[in-house]
Design goal:
The protein has helices spanning 10-18, 23-30, 34-44, 54-64, 67-70, 87-97, 130-137, 163-174, 213-230; strands at 47-51, 75-79, 108-112, 114-115, 144-148, 151-152, 180-184, 186-189, 192-195. It is of the alpha/beta class and 231 residues long. α1 (10-18) packs across α3 and α2 runs antiparallel to α3 (34-44). The longest helix has 18 residues, at 213-230. The radius of gyration is 21 Å and the shape is elongated. The N and C termini lie far apart (59 Å). This is F-box domain-containing protein.
Length: 231
Amino acid sequence: MPLSILNFPSELLSEITRNVISRKDLCRLRSVNLLFDTLATPEIFKSITVRNNIKSLEMLWSILHTPHIARHVQSIKYFEGRAIVTREVRKRIEAAFSILHQTPRLKALELNIIWEEGTITEGNIVTSSPLEDFIVHHSKTLKKLELHDCSICVEKGSERPLYWADIYKRLAKALTGLVELEVEFEIKRDNKPYICLGYTGSYHPVEILEGTEVAERDALALEEFKAIVKN
C-alpha cells in the first residue's frame, strides 16, 4: 500500500506547512482538504496587510467576523497612504477598527494613518479615539508598535493642537507589555524636513514643525515613551 502524505505524523505536516513561504501556495494548500485547511489557516492569517480601499477593508471585516480565523491574527499592517480617502472608505476604516479587539493574539501593529484624535469634552478634556482605545485594549498582549508618517487630522483653519505629546504619554502609561516601538513621522519634501500634520481630506505635510515648541514637546514625550519601552 503506497504511503500517503496524510499518513504522516501531524507534527511533521505542521512543520511542512510552517515552511511554506508563499502566501499563494499556502492558500492552495488550504484548499486541499480539511486537514490542510486547519494547518494552513494560522500561517495565512498570522500577518495581514490592509490598505485604504473597499476590497481590502472588506477582507479585514470578513476576517474579524470569522472567529476561528481572527484568533490567529498576530500582526496587522495598515497603510492609508497619502491619497484622499473618500467618506465611504473612512466609515469602513472606523468600523473595522471598532472591532479589532476580536484579534485576541495580536502582538504587532504597524500604522500609516491619519490619526483621528478624540473629541474635546467640557473642561477641555480630550477623550481617546477609537484607534487609541483599540491599542490600549491590547495593552497586555501588544509587543510591537510602529507608527509611520502618521498625522493628526484637524479641521482646516483651526489652531494646531498639541496632541502627539499627549498621545505618547497616554500610550506609555497603558502599554505595559510593549517591547518594541518605532515612530517615524519625518519625511523629506524639497529637501526640507517635515513632520506630517494632516488636514481633513489631505495627506500632505503642510508645516515645518522641526525646532518649534510643538515639535520639541512631542520629541521629549516620545523619548520618555521609548525609555519606558527599553526598560
